[in-house]
Amino acid sequence: MNNDFELCARLTAGDIDALGDVYDEHGSYVYGVAVKVTGSRAHAEEITQNVFVSLWEQPLACDPSLGSLRGWLVSLALHESALRSKVS
C-alpha cells in the first residue's frame, strides 16, 4: 500500500514512468478481469487502455488512503466491462 501512495504521488506530479510502473504491476490483472467479464479479448484490450488513460488523466481520482490502487483500477475495469456487456 505504501507503494500505492508513492505511485499516485508520482502520477499526480506528471511522471509518465509511474504510469508504466502501474501498468507493469497491474495491467495483466486488469486485462484478465475485463476478459473474464466481457468474454472478449478485443473489448478487454480497449477497457484496459481506457482504465490506464483514466488514471493518467485524473490521477487524483485514485485515493490510496481509501483502498488499494489495484482495487481502484479493477473497479473501473468492472464498471466499463459491465457497460460493454450490456451493449453487446
Radius of gyration: 13 Å
Structural class: mainly alpha
Q: Quick one: biggest sheet?
A: none
Q: Which percent range fits the helix content?
A: over 70%
Shape, please? elongated
What is the overall number of helices? 4
Mean pLDDT across all residues, rounded?
A: 92
Strand composition percent: under 5%
Short key terms for the protein model shown above:
about 90 residues; mainly alpha; elongated
Description:
Helix 1 crosses helix 2 and helix 2 (16-38) runs antiparallel to helix 3. 80% of the residues lie in helices and 0% in strands. The protein has helices at 2-12, 16-38, 41-57, 69-87. With 88 residues, it is mainly α.
Task: Write a compact overview of the structure shown.
This protein is an all-alpha fold and 88 residues long.
Give the helices and strands, then pairings.
Blueprint lengths: L1 H11 L3 H23 L2 H17 L11 H19 L1
